[in-house]
Records
---
Amino acid sequence: MSSEEAAAPSKAAPDEDGMTWWYRWLCKIAGVLGGISCAVSGVWNCVTVNPLNIAAGVWMVLNAFVLFLCEVPFCCQFIEFANAIAARADKLKPWQKALFYCGMALFPVFLSFSFTTLFGNAIAFATGVLYGLASLGKKGDAVTYARLQHQKQGDDERMAGTVNGAPE
């Protein structure tokens, strides 16, 4: 019983960011696909003599490693600190992950602008965009929005009535 009680608070902790389970999985799948595309494109980008392309390719492989480490740490079981980094990454707010992933994806594109770097980092950048959208929060319901609009119209009518009805 004590192990079940200890597991209950840990289940509630990830839901504090307001993401649904399917959106969380969508972000993780996008992170895995972004890592794969970064790794393949990064290795392909390193097969050149241009030093900027090689640097961008190495950075893309590093991006892939970080994406795998943060999103799917079970792929990096041979690394001792993988679970610690994944736990720390899970504690980050969605806007922080969005900024981190988008920044990581943009750096190789600025370093060496080519189709390989652009399309290789597109899915990693999309992962950051998904986390950024998650930071905006859930969409409000229509009833609350209609009530706010009705209240605003009433306030506008009262303001117009007092201005027009008041002696100057």
---
Amino acid sequence: MTLSFFDQFMSPTWLGIPLMALALTLPWLLFPTPSDRWLNNRLLTLQNWFINRFTQQLFLPLSPGGHKWAVLLTSLMLFLITLNMLGLLPYTFTPTTQLSLNMGLAVPLWLATLILGMRNQPTLALGHLLPEGTPTPLIPVLIIIETISLFIRPLALGVRLTANLTAGHLLIQLIATAAFVLLPLMPTVAILTTTVLFLLTLLEVAVAMIQAYVFVLLLSLYLQENV
């Protein structure tokens, strides 16, 4: 049986039934349920502290009109972090390595911020397409460039998340395979490779959290331009 390093990115199926919906639903069961008690357990207290700090930092530069998005963006942040972290466990599937899923998250949210800006302040929203003080001969060229960069934003959001997670998973699998092959031949080199694998796994844990934060942070910046 030949091993393909890209088999781990295939959507799981059972009896021909895609399990993508199940992979997206189960992580929500891991979150502790909030209670009405004054004193909560440590896990719930840590979760509440993290949500409060994240919401405060994310929406600090936004106007009060953008605070309506707090629940949506905070939930998206927790959802992406959970999916990315669970994908680092052995024999698991990472839904966020699928470009279709990431684009399905990025395009509607980006489009919502764009429509919000066009509805509330169309002059200011269209003003981003032409910087102030632009020479007259450059106006058509700059409008085309800014329009292209505007429509590339959701593609950049989806591709960034997909590429970072896919590259990390591939690198972990390559180094793990090398350590397994080198173990009977050169044990010392295999031990060093395993050490590198452990450090890389720690780095991927950080990348999993940072990429989820960057995804939501860029959405908040797009929202800031249109609110």
